[in-house]
Amino acid sequence: MKLGIVTGIPGVGKTTVLNTIKEILYKENIKFLIMNYGDYMLKTAIEMKYVKNRDEMRKLPLNIQRELQLEAAKNIHKDASSLSEGLSFLDTHAVIRTPGGYLPGLPKHIIEILQPQVIFLIESEPELILKRQEADKTRARSDYSDPNVIKETMDFARLAAMSSAVLVGASVKVIKNIEGDPSIAATQIIRSLM
Fold first, then answer.
1. Is 8 annotated in some ligand binding site?
2. Quick one: which residues bind ATP (predicted)?
3. Is 187 annotated to bind ligand?
4. Could you read off the pLDDT of 143-153 as tens digits, one per residue?
5. Whole-model pTM?
């Protein structure tokens, strides 16, 4: 199993980069799986009647978020392991900003289940992230609407990613998402995981 964890603050362009990865790997006839941690958590959270939508999850008490993280990690590892050859990518956050503080997205008990080879940090300038957030009317991200908060969150994400990587012997790679050409970031991610 080759698993790359693709992280980044909301609005940095993870979904766009992952969609580009999907297009590239499909054209090259390489088996792949792209998973979204939030989708796995949301499915459980809705089933347990904790939330009605994804953006409400960041506001849940930390103990409930931890419970959802653990259940998601087990299901993600199961799905990634079912892909005997090829590449698996997990779209998630290295940290989640909550009212109770920064919650590690990949704490010890989670990263040890996932066992990634690489943790990718997709980054852009805070002002560019704000611009992307404003253009995306499908999400509510007012808790990331300040450039200083974006910068602080990216700093915490770097620290969290390295801390998680140490626990499983993974590498950490910072990827700049260049405006207008997500194929640059996508190609760097693919090459690093192969």
1. yes
2. 8-16
3. no
4. 556 788 889 88
5. 0.84
